[in-house]
């Protein structure tokens, strides 16, 4: 049964359309015209993430429109005697607007996405929340205009998505380009046509949809979870409870913004996340975790922690009784072990270790030689005690693998490319279906401040996995990121799945959630 300790935090955690003109085509040229139209249509489908089962009809017409019941995107093919029509059903669409008014942003998104989807993920900038005087008006407008069954949304400083509207397209250098808007007016919406979505909330003191979660856990139907967390909630406790109740279910998400109201001296915080289902008002939520349980959609997670290993992997040899202080490493005092590694590396790494040193932890019971690059759980050194020990946080144990790491621009870019390349290879060899799109939860400490340029995380997918998947991304800049370290590619059959490594709370991390239709879907 899902239960939780009563824990409350008083401060927030932060850690282009195709047009062909042919005025006079003879009958002998009709076959060529049809072929060209179908070829362009195929390219269009790929760009939109279209189901392969979409039907194609050929008929005689002066002009016809390639149209989508779901996305309402149009491309026109004019010929003298023939045209091709298709029913395009986009499984996933991402839209990102930067209109100056939140109502206009919703309209731009609706014009691009269309209607008829089951689930929507909505990421709303703090400036829009301030305009709308809360999260509820924005989520309710998205639900009604896009006619979505379930909407889950969170407030953020900045958001990620494919550009729509004049301002966003100008900002990112083109229409339908993946972009990162780190601050300002921005609304990002990702819609999924069919996912078997069930919205939920779990808060402090086990408040929320406890009965629903226990029922879904007992059913064994949940394949994956997408989560949004309030920065004031007992997030580690909730993650532990969800892992215990859904041990084989991949989970990914991020921590929303802390929405401050009033002056510094007499300020309070408003709800930064909400759920809105068809026929109901938005449900404002705080001090907990909300999201969607997905019963018809798998999620492959890729956690990019932006770090480079330094020195050999070793083992923790001595831990404080409280379980949060590393006293010994490899049979030596912790500080002495670090100094040995420091003396053995080159000058460049020494400089990085002095300013950007972190620690990577392997799983208890693992061999230190079996942990791949990128699979370490990264933690900062919270304190160096007077006796040279390292305070790393709760849950460390003797015998646990440990490796020192550094984090900077170069290591972050290298890790990003490495992890996405690993994902591409592992998905290929596993025989998994291709993702229809992805959600990206990236730290507000990344972006231009880390890389020195914009859109690096958002456009990394396109470089690593190709244009079709890489452009279909949506997400936001988080106060902390949620996901299991490394890669998680669950088996397609629920009965064949292994338990997922514990879901962790990260900082300075990019968490990709690749959405993959389950094997039971056509």
Automatic annotation (TrEMBL):
Pfam families: FIST, FIST_C. SMART domains: FIST (SM00897), FIST_C (SM01204). Coiled coil: none annotated. Residues 334-485 form the FIST C-domain domain. InterPro entries: FIST_C (IPR019494), FIST_domain_N (IPR013702). Residues 118-333 form the FIST domain. PANTHER family: F-BOX ONLY PROTEIN 22. This is FIST domain-containing protein.
């Amino acid at each position: 049964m899902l239960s939780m300790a009563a824990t409350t935090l008083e401060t927030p955690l932060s850690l282009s359309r195709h047009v062909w003109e042919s005025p006079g085509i003879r009958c002998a040229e009709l076959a060529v015209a049809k072929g060209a139209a179908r070829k362009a249509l195929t390219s269009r489908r790929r760009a939109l993430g279209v189901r392969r089962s979409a039907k194609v009809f050929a008929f005689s017409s002066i002009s016809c429109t390639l149209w989508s019941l779901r996305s309402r995107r149009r491309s026109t093919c004019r010929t003298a005697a023939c045209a091709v029509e298709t029913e395009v059903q986009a499984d996933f669409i991402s839209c990102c607007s930067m209109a100056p008014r939140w109502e206009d942003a919703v309209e731009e998104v609706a014009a691009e996405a269309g209607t008829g989807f089951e689930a929507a993920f909505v990421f709303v900038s703090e400036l829009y929340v301030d305009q709308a005087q809360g999260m509820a008006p924005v989520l309710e407008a998205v639900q009604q205009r896009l006619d979505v069954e379930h909407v889950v949304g969170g407030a953020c400083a900045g958001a990620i998505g494919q550009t729509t509207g004049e301002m966003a397209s100008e900002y990112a250098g083109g229409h339908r380009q993946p972009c990162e808007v780190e601050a300002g007016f921005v609304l990002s919406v990702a819609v999924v046509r069919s996912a078997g979505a069930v919205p939920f909330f779990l808060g402090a003191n086990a408040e929320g949809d406890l009965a629903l979660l226990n029922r879904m856990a007992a059913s064994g139907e949940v394949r994956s979870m997408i989560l949004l967390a309030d920065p004031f909630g007992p997030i580690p406790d909730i993650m532990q409870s969800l892992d215990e109740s859904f041990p084989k279910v991949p989970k990914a998400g991020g921590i929303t913004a802390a929405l401050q109201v009033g002056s510094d001296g007499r300020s309070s915080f408003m709800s930064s996340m909400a759920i809105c289902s068809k026929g109901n008002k938005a449900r404002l939520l705080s001090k907990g975790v909300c999201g969607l349980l997905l019963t018809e959609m798998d999620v492959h997670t890729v956690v990019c922690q932006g770090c480079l290993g330094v020195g050999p992997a070793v083992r923790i040899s001595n831990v404080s009784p409280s379980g949060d202080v590393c006293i010994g490493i490899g049979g030596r005092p912790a500080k002495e072990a670090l100094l040995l590694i420091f003396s053995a590396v080159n000058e460049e790494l020494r400089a990085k270790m002095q300013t950007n040193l972190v620690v990577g932890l392997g799983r208890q019971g693992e061999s230190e030689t079996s942990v791949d690059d990128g699979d370490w759980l990264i933690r900062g050194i919270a304190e160096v005690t007077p006796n040279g020990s390292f305070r790393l946080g709760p849950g460390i144990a003797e015998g646990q693998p440990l490796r020192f790491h550094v984090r900077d621009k170069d290591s972050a870019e290298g890790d990003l490319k490495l992890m996405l390349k690993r994902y591409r290879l592992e998905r290929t060899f596993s025989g998994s279906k291709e993702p229809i799109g992805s959600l990206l939860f990236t730290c507000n400490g990344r972006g231009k401040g880390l890389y020195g340029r914009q859109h690096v995380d958002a456009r990394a997918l396109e470089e690593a996995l190709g244009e079709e998947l890489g452009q279909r991304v949506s997400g936001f800049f988080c106060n902390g990121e949620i996901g299991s370290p490394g890669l998680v590619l669950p088996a397609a059959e629920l009965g064949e799945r292994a338990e997922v490594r514990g879901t962790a709370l990260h900082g300075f991390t990019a968490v990709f959630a690749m959405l993959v239709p389950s094997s039971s879907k056509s």
